[in-house]
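Sequence design from tokenized structure. All designs in this work follow the same two-part layout: the structure record, then the generated sequence. An example of the structure record is given first.
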């Protein structure tokens, strides 16, 4: 074994980001760190940048130690769930041996640790009590609840603050400054007028924009909800899954048992069992409701999951009992009854437990605060981080408002390279609602994929993956003479180390020399072209010999 060292240690200059430690995922609104490990000249102070979408987010200096290594940590607080690409970079010197390792793109998936819920109730009730207890006992929920509130009338009645047992409702701060910190807002039989009398449009407008920007909202029934709560004509009406403005009676007080619709049979909220038939049977036996809030009907684009068995809405369709909708980037749900607690209490009284109630609200919570992977159009790269030149497989999944896969749907999208170059793509989904596309990136950095339904471009999804050209063979290019010498010494007389500049005298093992004969046989019958050429040359040779008088 002959080991030849190529180049001196001082001849190779390479500033590099060797690795970035991410942990693989991060929690929403919880700080996490991107730790970059650096290598370069000992004692050098290196500026390190953290970029996202090409914009500098943070910049820090780190001084490398005596061995030429260092580490810098960037603390990040993610504000949204999904996949996000960051890029760390260090300067590229003119004599940098490997410029490609000065940039390190990574993709981190942000998930929820706890779901933050704001529950606002107009008055105490069984429905408020049961829902609050359910939310409080769920360890994955961080609940802020208001249900005994001091109105402006209480404050203006001449009582002193210490004489009022009711707490002051910080509605202005909740629906302006703090609104973005919640994943879900529940308005449970809550009438806004006694509290929002001076700036109702502004505060309800904040709540509507919160939904459109990706938040979630639930409004339940009662004598202070929907039209009875004077929500018609407010900014909040535009995000509700039901239409308001009932001309006649705004409530119906006749008991009824909700009927599961075709969309509700497969929607995750109302799917109370693995089998659709079992789920339907559970809904048939659940306790009747005391009545419901009347509405004009379902809003455009909404899905009705539960409906009244015989009462019609103003639009002539069965009156909605449970309706859901996707509004811009957010989701909303309208439950026009205020007695869902009966699905727990009465079922338990008959020995069936409260699983129907718990499953309904757990599923509602999960759907309302859905991750991007639970939307109508979901874009999923097979890998978050890939090497340059590798094939990347991207799956686009489509669902309808009832959460069922959409087959034979036309989808179109764009792959956006780091330099802004766009590569369009299109296709049709299969029976499972999926369309698969493959790409082979030609540039490093964060690549974004966007896709949408051709029939409804508002239904869209996006994702990202990172491409790097970090060849493992070039991760450490400086020669290591100590390692080479020790490796040669392990072989004793059969090993030799040759330093830079020395004459190369290779060790040879004479006994290892072998003569390898090479012989190939070609069957002319299986190679007609070879046979034809052989025949032509043979005929040519015979003609030349005959012409020259040969035999």
């Amino acid at each position: 074994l002959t080991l030849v060292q190529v180049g001196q240690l001082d001849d190779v200059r390479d500033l590099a980001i060797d690795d970035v430690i991410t942990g693989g995922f991060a929690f929403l609104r919880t700080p996490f760190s991107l730790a970059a490990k650096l290598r370069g000249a000992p004692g050098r102070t290196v500026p390190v940048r953290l970029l996202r979408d090409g914009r500098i987010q943070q910049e820090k200096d780190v001084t490398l130690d005596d061995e030429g290594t260092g580490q810098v940590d960037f603390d990040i607080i993610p504000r949204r769930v999904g996949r996000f690409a960051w890029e760390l970079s260090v300067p590229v010197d003119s004599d940098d041996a490997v410029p490609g390792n000065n940039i390190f793109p990574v993709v981190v998936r942000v998930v929820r640790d706890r779901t933050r819920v704001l529950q606002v109730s107009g008055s105490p009730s069984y429905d408020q009590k049961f829902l609050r207890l359910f939310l409080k006992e769920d360890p994955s929920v961080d609940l802020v609840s208001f249900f005994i509130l001091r109105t402006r009338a209480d404050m203006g009645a001449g009582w002193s603050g210490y004489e009022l047992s009711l707490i002051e409702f910080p509605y202005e701060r909740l629906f302006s400054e703090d609104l973005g910190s919640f994943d879900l807002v529940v308005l449970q039989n809550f009438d806004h007028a006694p509290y929002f009398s001076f700036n109702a449009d502004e505060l309800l407008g904040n709540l509507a924009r919160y939904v459109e920007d990706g938040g979630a909202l639930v409004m339940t029934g009662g004598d202070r909800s929907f039209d009875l709560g004077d929500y018609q004509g407010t900014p909040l009406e535009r995000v509700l899954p039901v239409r308001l403005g009932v001309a006649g009676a705004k409530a119906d007080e006749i008991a009824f048992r909700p009927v599961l619709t075709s969309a509700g049979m497969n929607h995750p909220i109302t799917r109370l069992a693995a089998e659709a038939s079992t789920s339907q049977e559970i809904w048939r036996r659940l306790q009747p409701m005391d009545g419901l809030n009347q509405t004009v009907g379902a809003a455009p684009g909404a899905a009705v999951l539960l409906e009244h068995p015989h009462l019609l809405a103003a639009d002539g369709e069965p009156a909605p009992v449970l309706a859901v909708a996707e509004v811009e980037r957010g989701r909303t749900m309208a439950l026009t009854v205020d007695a869902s607690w009966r699905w727990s209490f009465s079922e338990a009284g008959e020995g069936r437990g409260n699983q129907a109630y718990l499953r309904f609200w757990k599923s509602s919570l999960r759907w309302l605060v859905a991750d991007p992977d639970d939307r109508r159009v979901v874009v999923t790269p097979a890998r978050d981080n890939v090497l340059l030149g590798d094939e990347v497989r991207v799956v686009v999944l489509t669902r309808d408002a009832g959460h069922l896969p959409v087959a034979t749907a036309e989808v179109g999208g764009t792959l956006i390279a780091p330099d802004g170059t766009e590569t369009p793509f299109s296709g049709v989904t299969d029976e499972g609602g999926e369309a698969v596309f493959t790409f082979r990136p030609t540039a490093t950095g964060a690549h974004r994929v966007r896709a949408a339904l051709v029939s409804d471009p508002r239904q869209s999804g996006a994702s990202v993956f990172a491409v790097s050209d970090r060849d493992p063979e070039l991760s450490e290019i400086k020669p290591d003479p100590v390692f080479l010498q020790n490796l040669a010494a392990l072989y004793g007389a059969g090993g030799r180390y040759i330093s830079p500049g020395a004459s190369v005298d290779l060790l040879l093992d004479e006994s290892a020399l072998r003569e390898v004969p090479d012989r190939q046989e070609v069957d002319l019958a299986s190679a007609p072209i070879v046979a034809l050429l052989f025949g032509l040359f043979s005929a040519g040779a015979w003609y030349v010999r005959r012409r020259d008088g040969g035999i």
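The CA atoms of residues 81 and 397 lie 18 Å apart. We note this feature because it recurs in several other targets discussed in the main text.
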